[in-house]
Amino acid sequence: MLFLTSAKAATVRAALDHWAGQGLLAPDEAARLSATITVQTVDWRRLSRYAFWAAVACLIVSLGALAEDSRVMALLVRLFTFGPAQRFLGFALAAGAFFAYGVYRHRARPQTAFRNEAILFLGVVATAASLVNLGLWLDSGKGRDDLLFLLASLIYGAIALGLRSVLVWVFTLIALACWMVAFTGIVSGWENYYLGLNWPLRFVLFSAAIVALAVPMARGARLAAFSRPTLSLGLLYLFLSLWLLSIFGNYGDLEEWRTVSQLGMIPWSVLFAAVAVAAIWIGVRRDDGMLRGYGLIFLGLNIYTRFFEVFWTSLHKGIFFALLGVSLWLLGTRAEKLWTLGRGR
């Protein structure tokens, strides 16, 4: 018996009918296969995923709420007086326990994938807490938080590759981005520029490296599962950075930025549009919905950002919002037609 949502069941049955009509599948066999499909009125798989994430979020919120309760904290302080070293050790042991239990469940019960990932996420949180306390314990006044983020990315990366956990791999890339911010900030004395690059331009180069990393990962059998998440997060970093770059350019000082004419931002806007169009083109050629989606969304964001920049002060607000409303109406109409066409197919 095959359990599918109503939309997927309709698609599979339509395919079976088509193959039977083309003579590629015997009618009796098509009817037999169609009878094995059971429509699920509730997507239990998705519900399971969301329920586990909601449970983990509630646990974290509850810990935060307890930390805000002065009476609870006073009681804990009376019972236990821990320094950063003890807290580091306690959280490190907790992280090790979560990861060990996650490894056990990963091997013993691989079918409970969402529960296993939720347990690993608790290990990720405990690891972050342990590293924060490690920083407090070893703080020499130099503020080398970049080393903690680098250590976090190495720990998460090793666990993600060992367990083939996409969730932990995502946190590896997030920790790596935090390391880049901390490292370039520290070595530049937290100035606006590092090697002549402001923050958005630094992130453009960093995210381009993440996107480039996803390409060879897709060719390796062990790393193939991490390729798409790496590409997705890299594209998100890249397009958000390009969007900020199209607004502020390579300027780190707001006073300097205010003296620059709008024409000075055109090259960055063109670069933003060119990367979005390239993503759409590659997505169309490779039938990659993720690339097409990123390209279309951020190309539209680029156009509407330029619309606000150029016409916000020059047009009457009534005309401005009328044009904005008409354009959004046309966009919604076109999207609705494409959705209806796709649904019909």
Automatic annotation (TrEMBL):
Source domain of life: Bacteria
Parts of the chain that traverse the membrane: 50-67, 87-104, 116-135, 147-163, 168-187, 199-218, 230-251, 263-282, 294-312, 318-335
Claim: NADP is one of the keywords in the record: no
Keyword DNA damage annotated: no
Keyword set, alphabetical order: Membrane, Transmembrane, Transmembrane helix
Protein name: DUF2157 domain-containing protein
Taxonomic source organism: Rhodospirillum rubrum (strain ATCC 11170 / ATH 1.1.1 / DSM 467 / LMG 4362 / NCIMB 8255 / S1)
